[in-house]
Write a structure and sequence with these properties.
With 209 residues, the protein is an all-alpha fold. The chain contains 8 helices and no strands.
């Protein structure tokens, strides 16, 4: 009987077997791509959650209400609250500034005379989140209006007082226009302004409109 002629060369695979190997590898590649995609989604989601944990929007109802009332970007208020108290309503500083936005008694009395002269509020009420955010928002909005809506200069005034900022504005070494500060010569002021402005930038990036 005549030997059957081989239909493929020695060392090669039959076409059917090659197709099976190709299909197997394609399936593995598809699974790996799916796993990579899922992993990427998990990493991105975890990153977003970490950022939102680091830059939270606590007391959002109060912040957004009073930001709207005084025509402010609510992300500025979140940045100030984060810097001042890290959202701790019971916070109290070494100079007895109190609550979420760290308001001193002198400042409390001045704000009360402007927005709540007939209300039965005391300095102790600054531990109440609504009272604190209400008063702090008014005061910060006043600082912004006083200093040309410049966040850095307003933050400096909120931290160090108008008198200190006005003295710096009168010095051309620190201000060219007499309305906003170009530099912040005091270490604590500089650090505070940096914290507020950088936190505001992060809030804008994380919670873009």
């Amino acid at each position: 009987m005549r030997r059957t002629q081989q239909t493929f060369r020695e060392g090669t695979e039959p076409k059917g077997k090659l197709d099976r190997w190709r299909t197997w590898w394609l399936r593995i590649a598809a699974v790996l791509l799916c796993l990579v995609a899922i992993g990427s989604i998990i990493v991105i989601s975890a990153h977003d959650e970490i950022e939102q944990w680091e830059y939270p929007r606590k007391y959002s109802d109060l912040v957004e209400y009073y930001a709207g009332k005084y025509d402010l970007d609510d992300r500025m208020l979140y940045a100030v609250i984060r810097t001042e108290s890290n959202f701790d309503p019971e916070a109290q500083s070494s100079v007895d500034a109190r609550g979420l936005m760290q308001i001193t008694e002198v400042t409390f009395d001045w704000i009360k005379s402007k927005i709540a002269p007939a209300e039965d509020l005391t300095f102790e009420d600054l531990y109440d989140p609504e009272t604190n955010i209400r008063f702090g928002t008014y005061y910060f909005s006043y600082c912004l209006q006083r200093y040309g809506n410049d966040l850095a200069t307003a933050a400096a005034a909120y931290h160090s007082g108008w008198g200190t900022v006005d003295d710096l504005l009168a010095d051309s070494q620190y201000s060219q226009d007499g309305v906003t500060l170009d530099s912040f010569p005091y270490t604590q002021m500089q650090r505070y302004v940096y914290k507020v402005t950088s936190a505001y930038e992060r809030y804008c990036e994380i919670y873009a409109d």
